[in-house]
């Protein structure tokens, strides 16, 4: 069975949102074989760095935190759509002809996957596309940017999706993934009371027996 790792590598120089210094990851070695009988490290990391899930609390004042995540939504059939031709943002007209059905977990592959650095003008999901996905009744939306939206001061995309119980998965690496149907395995760390959590995300060649 073919397994595709679609997670970002975590390291000190990994890209962070808006290149904000305080968001940068720091991995510190606190013991090694030159001074101890074991090897041990500590990590400082913003929850929204790397591949991660957003919980409703991220944008909704009374939203649920990440430990309430429905595990069945993270082990599921998904559809990858290649939108590498899209400029600036994903709009309703870019996706309304796609094979998107109720209960689908949708992953958008865009130009974001072509760079390993943070680009301020990354491709994002516009409000009207989020409304379309909400009305379709999808279970989740993933994208290959560190955010699912930008340039929307009221955070309409986040609020529409998270407010409808749709999972939001950000920071995917989809450069080598072809458009198609897969089994997604992506689960957030079980952190109490937070608005999101890092995740390890992989795609498996589609096998109906895995998800039934």
TrEMBL record:
Q: What is its EC number?
A: 3.5.1.9
Q: Which enzyme class, named as a word?
A: hydrolase
* One example GO MF annotation: metal ion binding
- Presence of keyword Electron transport: no
Catalytic activity annotation: N-formyl-L-kynurenine + H2O = L-kynurenine + formate + H(+)
Query: Biological process (GO) annotations?
Result: L-tryptophan catabolic process to kynurenine
Names of the cofactor(s): Zn(2+)
* Involved pathway(s): Amino-acid degradation; L-tryptophan degradation via kynurenine pathway; L-kynurenine from L-tryptophan: step 2/2
Q: Which keywords label this protein?
A: Hydrolase, Metal-binding, Tryptophan catabolism, Zinc
Would the keyword Oxidoreductase be found if you checked this record's keyword annotation? no
One Pfam family recorded for the sequence = Cyclase
Subunit structure of this chain's protein: Homodimer.
Protein task? Catalyzes the hydrolysis of N-formyl-L-kynurenine to L-kynurenine, the second step in the kynurenine pathway of tryptophan degradation.
Q: What is this protein called?
A: Kynurenine formamidase
Task: Name its species.
Answer: Clostridium oryzae
Q: Read off the lineage from the record.
A: Bacteria, Bacillati, Bacillota, Clostridia, Eubacteriales
């Amino acid at each position: 069975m073919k397994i595709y790792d679609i997670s970002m590598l975590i390291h000190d120089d990994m890209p962070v949102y808006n290149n904000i210094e305080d968001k940068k990851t720091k991995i510190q070695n606190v013991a090694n074989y030159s001074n101890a009988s074991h090897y041990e490290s500590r990590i400082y990391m913003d929850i929204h760095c790397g591949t991660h899930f957003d919980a409703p609390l991220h944008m909704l004042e009374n939203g649920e935190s990440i430990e309430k995540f429905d595990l069945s939504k993270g082990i599921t059939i998904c559809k990858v759509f290649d939108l590498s031709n899209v400029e600036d943002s994903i709009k309703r007209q870019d996706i309304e002809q796609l094979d998107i059905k109720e209960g689908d977990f949708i992953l958008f592959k865009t130009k974001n996957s072509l760079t390993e650095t943070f680009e301020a003008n990354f491709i994002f999901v516009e409000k009207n596309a989020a409304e379309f996905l909400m009305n379709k009744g999808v279970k989740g939306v993933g994208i290959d940017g560190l955010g699912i939206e930008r340039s929307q001061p009221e955070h309409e995309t986040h609020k529409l999706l998270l407010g409808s119980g749709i999972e939001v998965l950000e920071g995917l690496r989809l450069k080598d993934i072809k458009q198609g149907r897969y089994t997604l395995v992506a689960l957030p760390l079980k952190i109490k009371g937070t608005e999101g959590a890092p995740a390890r995300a992989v795609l498996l060649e589609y096998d109906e027996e895995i998800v039934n």
